[in-house]
């Protein structure tokens, strides 16, 4: 059976997921077959061009009529457009992959998680960095006890595309459309990895800052107010006793996509950065320092699908692997990890960090 | 017009080029359209599986009958199978992309270059690293004079897959099939970049070594003799007066695909490694040290076809870009750079290094 | 005039400061002349050996009788022995250099700062990292506006010497003797650099953890309770609006002395680590990435006293520079920066972080 | 007994060795006691200032009258002034430490080695990098077989202080005074480490280049010809079958003191750079990649004399350790490693590289 797929959204992540679907037959021949059936958007001419380029058979300008006609629904729209389409798709028993963060409000995220729980379909939230070989290997090293008990997590995600105060306003800088700024856009990834690699968070402290409070209107002469954070910091207290610090910024000069994760355990430690996604620094028990692993060996996660050792993968491969996992789970009637519950758990942390900031105190999660 | 394409060979580089062709429509929509028509190999069952996976319409067990039926011929076979098929294809006016090194002997390379000169078709040799954004940017910085006059080139290409003496014999360890070992397999890339970035080489000195002189026969119980080098070193004297050192090894523990290039100029300097292919270290005129550029900005070579800044590309993208350039040149009736003359120039250096080693003296090129 | 100097304490920092005094004549000939007059300690035989090795003319087993007899008093004793000796020395008009943190309690620190304010002598707290060339250069770049307005500070100080649960109890793991653990031992340095490079802190949030709650008694068979933190994290809100995160650990496997500082500004950014103390990573306005500066040029701070470019300095040079500055200020009747007020300011942050942790809320500073 | 010491030369290396002698009592209390007795130079006023600063009791403007009056003679003069003073000192039974390279001609080096062989005194050549903890540890790892049999050596030593064509002429750019340029100044260190870590060299190939052939006369308005190399490259064939490449430049922009050494063995590999002298990258048998060791642990060579782990040492400590070893050997009547034979062996390589260049062929050593 070939799965009929619809995408809501066709820009950056639309291309990334279309590319993933296009590559599965050659590199993951055991993954389910898919047909890119319907591409959904509002601007008809852009939509037509995108559908042609991304290999979709049809276009539609509304999502409501589509959810009943496809087997799989990808919600790649701005955050405020996550809940209703995703819930409708799940209600129609379509499998759903939703971009992160799960929603722009905690209420929406809860509604989505409830809909997922009520549906037989598979619901996935797109925390794609879990599917990079080096991150998957980090998880393996934690699970197999190489590091011992985890005592500290450090995560930060730094970009600089908003460092220029003349960078234009977009939905990503608007609270009503995005929910939050660096927090939900970047921090959601980091918080997911914190939960994935360490476990549940008991309490958080937060601080958010908006440095540039208005930006040029992309469709006019004036400016629009920026109503989300440019940067945030947070402390985490994990349930297992580990400490955590998390930080993100879209105004950090010289950082293009610097998502760094560090773990300290009783026996060992790990370090990783998205700017060098194939490298994992591992301090093993009894070793003097960190060993640089190039995670491109045939027995590393996902690597046997690709190239010989040392022929490094790129960012986009995380999305290919994510799609292979999601579609395989969907066809098998299984849940995908991370699912909407995982998305909700991160949303609760996003919300708690904002409340902790607003109240000047730690918030129980 | 859709170009009908045949591949001779379907393993590592077969997959890499099939992937490249499959990705062009989405990411390089202006590149010529292609149809993967015929996959050529000897083992019928493996061939059928590969054709299915790589998206080829047909298979064939001999190349002679295919060259007349396609527009483009990819020679991805072991080195000793480069000359005759490529020449036949060119004689049939098929465009040819041939894997590196151009041939297993200098004689073959000369015949191939002559055939290319006599043909109206486009002949390309697959020095794919030229097409990584960071390497293309290095070329740009040299061409625009950022570094001043080049005084020194350092290149080394280190791998460790033959460090284990029980790694099996293959065509890559046999002089009759491969021509040379680390020299032609890895050094050919480095020597091409030396010529690309610095210019013609006037003289070479060489040294080659075989550390493991027999390896297990993959098809039997015994061993086969290793008749190629495991490692080589060379000095270059460029025509412009620059010094050069080039080195490669397939027995360098801990190096997976460590192809490093350094350039010193009168005003600046460059450093690059294939294990971090998206990074270029640039020492600009007047600066104190090297600046790390993540070559993922929209105006960097090829990058606007892909993702936002910081979303790094992998090894395989070099092959995608190479194919876009080659096919575009082919349809336009233009030559591709690097062409068979460039492949021949490198082959002459490979041959000169071997003769320099054999004779214990510098050889004029 | 030759300054007569007394040291209270003769272990690690005693050796470091004795070395500094011994090196000034050759490398800082303009610095005041000193005589190592009295070495103070309790264990007479160890004291005699140390005085001989460190070049002291005399020994004493109590500090009270010494403070009137010397011109300069170095308090290098455990934290609980900072206040009384330092105050007595200042009251006797001896110049005082006190190791960090200034005291083991905020009360003591306040008494010390008051004594310093009442004394004509120079009082210095030993935040020696300010005097590394790379850190001094970082300060220069901030002051001259190269980075623009500072928006973010990240500091962490990681060591692993207590990762082993059998590492023995010492005064450094006892709250009555040390005041705090990683917080005061390591975090004090980081917080001083935060104030030095960014400015005053308005509010803090804190979290402290003790992972190993008892350790072998070094003088017996049993164990002693650990009453200080093994690790802490904190968020800072600077008065100028910048965000800050600070973290320290003595149980971070693989980190020997990894004190990292990062600054983001509106125009540029900085990165530095104590494990590579001579290197400063600078992202300049308009640049693509970080430039690695080896801060060993003749016009870099302090460097002209030493070696040609590239002949790197070590950790101990920070202490030599600190002593040159302190003694020069003392003889000139000027204050040293950082003085006891700066030490008190850091102590207030240490105290605030502990209270923030205890109360689960941000504390105004 | 206190050894009376004379220095010929008081600039860079004069300061480095005076510093070493001054530090031994505190950090190497078991090393022999020394008195800085006579400082020898030609410019009386500079000499008097230097003697005062460096702690010498007397000065002299000629070396002949001094060699009989001291126990130890340090030849820190320009290369052409190595042979006669060192030989005279050895003939007078004074122990000699001579800066590298041993001489400016092979003849002189041979005379020096003969004099050392005939003398009961200890003769040392100052290849100080052997005495950095990380390099000494590299030697240990080789000796204990951690790397297996060595198959490849890579060394390069890059600086940029002559990249500026207006950098003045000095004895270091004159063949009559220095013998060679980057080759003897920098390459001598690298070649010594090659012999130290791998073993004897059977054959060499060489290439030398002078890019700037005249430089401003520091004492006049005109220029002086540059008669030494700005850069060289060489290939080595070791007697044990290993390959080697060696390269040095004083015109490599952005490199301040970048002396890099790499070793590949059958089982493991090493990497080290002088710009990060405390770090050793080790690829152990069976490991995936290189582990970064911070060579500051108490059981690392020389480290127990200094600071706790992670408190890094600088360049100058190599000279302190070298002096401790040399003086200890001298008093014990033992030879120092490296001795004049080792200096001569390197001089033969320098000479062979020049002849290999001149003759365009490999030279047996």
From TrEMBL, chains A, B, C, D:
Residues 3-126 form the Gfo/Idh/MocA-like oxidoreductase N-terminal domain. Keywords: Oxidoreductase. It comes from the Archaea. InterPro entries: Gfo/Idh/MocA-like_OxRdtase_N (IPR000683), Gfo/Idh/MocA_oxidrdct_glycsds (IPR050463), GFO_IDH_MocA-like_dom (IPR055170), NAD(P)-bd_dom_sf (IPR036291). The keyword Flavoprotein does not apply. Residues 136-271 form the GFO/IDH/MocA-like oxidoreductase domain. The keyword Lipoprotein does not apply. Pfam families: GFO_IDH_MocA, GFO_IDH_MocA_C3. GO terms for molecular function: nucleotide binding; oxidoreductase activity. This is Predicted dehydrogenase. It comes from Halorientalis persicus.
